[in-house]
Amino acid sequence: MRLLDLADLPHRPIEAHGSRGFSVGAFGISADAHLIAIALAPGGTIGRHPAPGRQLMVVLSGEAEVSGAEGTVRRLGPGQAAVWEPGEPHETRSPAGMTGLIVEGDLDVGAPGEQVDPGDT
Where is the Cupin type-2 domain (predicted)? Predict the structure, then answer.
């Protein structure tokens, strides 16, 4: 077994699309998906951009304000997530700061649990 501390991953700042106070630490990749730890400083923004593929963002700590193609802003707290479809324009802001996890790629998100994990039979 290996343990990972997402806060200790090497992060690099991202300024594309007008982003500020945003950094990422990639820690997993497969042919179909990327796993990325993210941090937004207080007042930080992930600027509006199209999702490169289906994208799941889970808030681990703090709070996020997210919007998708329709522009409606929704607040997310720890344990909550947003899913954006391929090509969907979206933006994330955090007035107080947040840490999170992004999984992007060829994902089946939101399917009933028994379809994703049939469990032990």
Answer: 39-95
User: What predicted TM-score, i.e. pTM, was given to this entire model?
Assistant: 0.86
* Residue 2 tokens, joined: 């290996």
pLDDT attached to residue 5: 87
The first and second tokens of residue 27, run together, are 């820690």
Nearest CA-CA partner of 9 in 39, 45, 46: 39
| 61-70 mean pLDDT | 97
CA angle, 14 then 105 then 46, to 5° = 25
Helix (H, G, I), strand (E, B) or coil at 71: coil
Domain at 21-107: CATH code? 2.60.120.10
DSSP label at residue 8: G
Q: What is the per-residue pLDDT across 20-31, written as a single tens digit (0 to 9) for each? A: 999 999 888 888
């179909």: which residue's tokens?
Answer: 32
Tell me whether residue 22 is exposed, middle or buried, using C-beta atoms within 10 angstroms of its C-beta: 0 to 12, 13 to 18, 19 or more.
buried
